[in-house]
């Protein structure tokens, strides 16, 4: 199977291109990525099948061989700071829970902010 590296990929557009080791650009559709992988970073090494598409070669059955190191993973928060963040978040969630018991949902911006905080903490815990 051919191999190459991701030149660029846009999650919003749903496609990108691979620079194959043979020197040609290969179209990469989001639907060709492995299940559970919504996007790939530039420089990610891939193995893929190739089919002739309307506008040239198109990648199929993509398999990630080597992904570049994430800068986020290298910026892990120290344990004491993470513990303090979790404790503060518990207080916020308690307040939101009490409001929900009284029929008050958080406003759109509040809910969005809380979602970002929870995703950030989850990312730190999973790193």
Class from helix and strand fractions: alpha+beta
User: Helical proportion?
Assistant: 25-40%
Q: What CATH architecture label of the largest domain applies?
A: Beta Barrel
Question: How many separate helices?
Answer: 3
Predict the CATH topology of the largest domain: OB fold (Dihydrolipoamide Acetyltransferase, E2P)
CATH superfamily of the largest domain: Nucleic acid-binding proteins
End-to-end separation in angstroms reads 32 Å
Overall 3D form: elongated
Rg, Å, rounded? 21 Å
Report mean pLDDT, rounded to a whole number.
90
What share of the residues does DSSP label as strand, in percent? 25-35%
Enumerate the strands of the largest sheet in spatial order, edge to edge or round the barrel. Answer: 3-2-1-4-5
**Count of domains:** 2
* CATH class category name of the largest domain: Mainly Beta
Give the H and E element order: EEEEEHHH
Major sheet size, sense and barrel closure: 5 strands, antiparallel
The stretches of 5 or more residues where confidence is low (pLDDT under 50) are none
Question: What is the total tally of β strands?
Answer: 5
